[in-house]
Amino acid sequence: MDSEVVGGSFRDPSGFLYTRNGTLYRQVNRVFQDRLAAFVGSGLYDELARDRLLIPHRPVGLELAATAEACAVLQPERVGFISYPYEWPFGWLRDAALLTLELQERALTRDFTLRDASAYNVQLHEGRLIFIDTLSFEPRVEGAPWAAYGQFCEHFLVPLALMSMRDIRCGSLLRSHIDGIPLDLGSRLLPASTWIRPGTALHVHLHAWAQSRYAQGDSRRASRKRAVSRQAALGLVKNLRSIIERLTWTPAGTEWADYTLDNNYSQAASASKREIVTGLLGGAGPQVVWDLGANTGEYSRAARELALRVISFDVDPAAVERNYRRVRAEGESGIVPLLLDLANPSPAQGWAHDERLSLESRGPADALLALALVHHLAIGHNLPLERIASFLSRLGRSLLIEFVPKSDSQVQRLLQSRPDIFPGYSREGFEAAFRRHFRIEAARPVAESERTLYLMTSCAAGRA
Amino acid sequence: MYIDPTTGSLVLQLVAAGVMSGLAMMSRVRESVKSLFRSLDPRGGRWTQKL
Questions:
Q1: In principle, which of A46, A133, A149, B7 could form an S-S bond with A214, CB 3.0–4.6 Å?
Q2: Looking at chain B from residue 1 to 51, which residues have their Cβ under 8 Å from any Cβ of chain A?
Q3: How far A22 CA sits from the closest chain B CA (Å)?
Q4: What are the pLDDT digits (tens) for A414-449?
């Protein structure tokens, strides 16, 4: 069977990722043969894989190679869900930066170096962050500067500084700048006070100035006879780490951060909702669940008891941050908290629309949870119910959705400041719209509330 | 090397590495001076606590 190259795996001539019969492989090209042998032979690979900092792999036969350039084929442990830095909460990006620095530090102590410092190389896997690019390590040339220093600043330092010191929403700049936020842009957007902080002054503002000053590439004159010793390289890593560690953000004061504590459920309604959710979801038997309005992940955790993996999406950076901190603090595996605006989900982007996948092309999930969500889409975003049903039917094979009627106090809040232009927003209208794309399997009223939970089966997802 | 390290980043890194080395050297000198005073101090280092 033919191999299918992973869309985002083409920049590095050393090798690439591909799938064959549904199994993921990494081809190593002959040009990188010596460096891979040195990396494995040094013991650095074993150390990093043992400590779960680098994804482990097992070598497989060369007959599984995708092209004749191959000198080795590796089968890496597979990460369940690939996510992108523009979908991560602040803490995840910060931890990814610290992981990258730890890898560079460990590499330096064995006379190796990280060839790149792309944030896309870090994923959440089994409850902790892990580096997934095995070919990023190579022997260090004595005196050579860190080639990935500029990339580290653009992928990590600038976005984190902007999110911490300007506005948390600056993280979304990573969506339009998939190669990292340019230093000159970061320098212009950061507050003036960052000029008197040594870390940002040096690594962002002066760095941006140096890039502009040496844009013509006259590096030989600029760096003649100067080298970076291993000690100085380690000092740079230490300095960057202390700067990243001082960048913080407190997840509070946003609309949804306290939603779990500030909703209109009585205790009995909450208990009833949880019982219905677990009962209906358990019957569907999903392996992978996408919780589309997860808030801090209360129902994601209930779903996790029934499924292998739950992708826990929310639009609110504070709620996702809290969810992530809980995953990290409790070492929870199988829950992946991500930022998602369902009204404007992650698109396919990068080269040929294929480098970074859209949300839809990373699915379909076995089951979707859409709890207390539909009224925000229909009334908050003016999305017709039929269009909501159409999109959800492509995202998941089963759907567990909560209908919140107009008489509910949360919907009344949405309608407080605007005319009611939603005559079709009723239980009958909801069922009619969703019947065009789903088969309704069950409908259960939530006790002490006017809400109803539905279990539906998609007529579209997974048919391709 | 397959990513472009950019000349500006290489130059800045040399500057940063120089600054780091300078700071590390100053720190080592400071520690040496402190330990010298400590060894001369008959009262067990109380002179040097404010250094």
A1: B7
A2: 1-3, 5-21, 23-24
A3: 29
A4: 888 888 888 899 999 999 999 999 999 999 999 989
